[in-house]
Amino acid sequence: MGNAPLFLAHILIRFNAVTSDKYSDETDGWGGFKVKCDIIKSRVSQALRSCFLMYDKTHGIDMVRSTVEYAKDIGLVIGNRNGYYFTTDADKHKFTLANMPRDFRETPILFKIMKDSVIPPLSANLSSVAPEEMYIPEEEMNFYDL
Fold it and tell me: What CA–CA distance (Å, rounded) separates 98 from 104?
């Protein structure tokens, strides 16, 4: 029960349900709520950052809705729940909040647009240490073998 687990952990994350952002099947087309994800400690990215994840009651954390929520927060998605668009999409492929997973399945170009838009800002949050800078001399390797 000492401080060693906190010291040795590479990342500590706290999840809090955002009770004010609930979604229901009747009004929104899917049931769930928003979860605030706080990065308390991180050795590989920027600590003390927050993001929101979308929790679907039937499937758990929804990757597509969570990524679109992040894209909305940084200004890469515009529109409202009846029709969202990526700002980098010249053809304006529409997707909705209620049918978002289905819209992305039926229009595979949306995944490519999302990947090309969201990955660069996410990569900017990662550590700037190059892989060649992570070299550990052979004599020190025995120390890390458990």
Answer: 12
